[in-house]
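I'm curious: can you give me some protein's one-letter sequence along with its backbone structure tokens because I've never seen that pairing?
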Amino acid sequence: MDKLLDAIEHGRLFHAYIIEGDAISGKYEYAKSAAMAILCREEPGKGCGRCSICQKIAHENHEDVYHICADENSLKDATVAELQENLRHKPTAGDYSVAIIEDADTMTVRAQNRLLKTLEEPNPGTVIFLLSENSDNLLPTIRSRCVTVRTAPEFDADNPYVEFAAFLLEETERGAYFATIRDALDKRIKDRKSALAFLDAAEILLMRYFTGQEKSMWSRDHIKEIVSYAEEARRDINFNVNYKYALRNLLIKAGM
């Protein structure tokens, strides 16, 4: 992300970026920070975070910043078409229009081919951020027209998914029943996106257990097994297996 902001600050702004990272890596917040750096007049290239422009971006009501995301499991062609129509207009308040495409790797092939036209011939002053967990799901023609910026999740004990994962792992270590863990997951995890965020948080904590940064009763071998099962659950969810089934399968295999 520092490379992206550095490029903006030094006038090396490209028209399209893929911001790739796990579900809890803060990709959307990164994209908003980049939008501030592009549009802020108080601290151009950085973003002051205080002016009316930065505040509008922070509160998601800036007239030249467009945000779209998946409807259920995928980002549809009609949603991308509406974004393209908005990007045809000149910016209202400044020199740039910024598009933030969340869940970009869930775009249908038709939607990706539609977006490709905009990436090939963007209107002047258009900057597009495609947020992705796995850019391999994007067409090679999309990837070739974007600069990729990779983000890494940082440990944040106050992140709600980290807190929840820590709670479930602690309950599991204490010998809680399968039904107790299952019911807690069903109550908290309501869709594919939150399931992936939970898996990200759980894996971060498991790696801290593995490296000794957090105390655990489990052996390193058992921790490695749970991580492999979590990765299997992630793959299943990304291949559109029902997220509840994938998480319950993880619980059973990991002995949780």
In short: Strands lie at 16-20, 65-68, 97-101, 126-132, 147-150. The first helix runs from residue 2 to 9. The radius of gyration is 20 Å.
